[in-house]
Amino acid sequence: NSLYTQDSGPRPMELIEIFKLFQVQFNRSYSSPAEYARRLDIFAHNLAQAQRLQEEDLGTAEFGMTPFSDLTEEEFGQLYGHQKIPERYPTVGKKVESEKWGES
Amino acid sequence: VPPTCDWRKATDIISPIKDQEKCNCCWAIAAADNIEALWRIRYRQIVDVSVQELLDCDRCGNGCTGGFVWDAYITVLNNSGLASEKDYPFQRHAKPHRCLAKKYKKVAWIQDFIMLSSNEQVIAGYLAAHGPITVTINMELLQHYQKGVIKATPSTCDPRYVNHSVLLVGFGKSKTEEGMQAEMTSSQSRKPRHPTPYWILKNSWGAHWGEKGYFRLHRGNNTCGITKYPFTARVGQPVKKLPVSCPP
């Protein structure tokens, strides 16, 4: 049940097929066979991670393949997060007694 | 506080889902979404404000490398408003030294901005009475999210570490059938037996992500730090009765 390719090494056939679907669905191509192999590895890891989240979640959420399934957790955080932790946020003053507009 | 509230059901209040692409500008988009919704509620006027102006004119010059919603509000106050998205469109990268704020007409502005209490009941009440607000959450679980209500614990989603700003647009409870279906399709006995209270959040990763660009988080246990930074702009002068109320 595995397929050997020079680029990516032995892989379960099903995983390669799912990755192919992912590439088509989200319009992904990779610059080299090495990059393809790396992304396939990450993709496999992420599918396992999604499965784990599915089991851990206490609500009705469903986890699985998404547009970010070929990114590492670090890459995802760097690309889509804030990239910085707030050292401070604006001081929120004491609430004034009057709600009337224009009064300080 | 009403039992349910969904601002998406009110006509022309919530602007279309945006896509930040590979620009760390969730903070600017969340603030823009907040101002657009409040402006539409208050003045019944459809405006799409310039996210690019928030990136180019940010006082910290961070643009696509990250920021926080309060940076965006300060930019709006400093520039006396925002240009339209049409005049000053999103370029997917910032030009921090090329702020073009003075070049274009302002289409929306704010009076000030506030941080709400970190109490989910207070947040729900404000949301229902005044309109959508911004929150900043730990986005860890969103990488693999497809649909449904995420119910995490502090160990699976640390509420102290928040790194993604989004717009809170409503709240409700999952239908019993949804909970039952989850029970039937999962071997996990921990799945909910009762309707799950949830928040409805508008993301900035395009309409093809999640539930048509939205996602839901469990309401009531500070899931993923949702109560850490609840911020909102204030548009117009205070009035006793708002022109629109949140649809159930």
Describe the structure.
The complex is a heterodimer of chains A (104) and B (248). Chain A is mostly helical and 104 residues long. In chain A, 43% of the residues lie in helices and 10% in strands. Chain A has helices at residues 13-25, 33-56, 73-80; strands spanning 2-5, 9-12, 62-63. A two-stranded antiparallel sheet of chain A has the order 1-2. In chain A, strand 1 (2-5) and strand 2 form a beta hairpin. Chain B is 22% helix and 17% strand. Chain B has five helices and nine strands; from the N terminus they run βαααβαββββαβββ. Chain B has helices at residues 26-43, 51-56, 69-78, 120-130, 176-185, and strands spanning 5-6, 112-115, 133-137, 145-147, 149-150, 164-173, 197-202, 214-218, 231-234. In chain B, strands 1, 3, 5, 6, 7 and 8 form a six-stranded mixed sheet that branches. Chain B has a two-stranded antiparallel ribbon with strand order 2-9. Chain B is globular, with a radius of gyration of 18 Å. In chain B, 53% of the residues are buried.
Summarize the structure.
Chain A is mainly α. Helices cover 43% and strands 10% of the residues of chain A.
List descriptors.
heterodimer; A: 104 residues; mainly alpha; two-stranded antiparallel sheet; 3 strands; 43% helix; globular; B: 248 residues; 5 helices
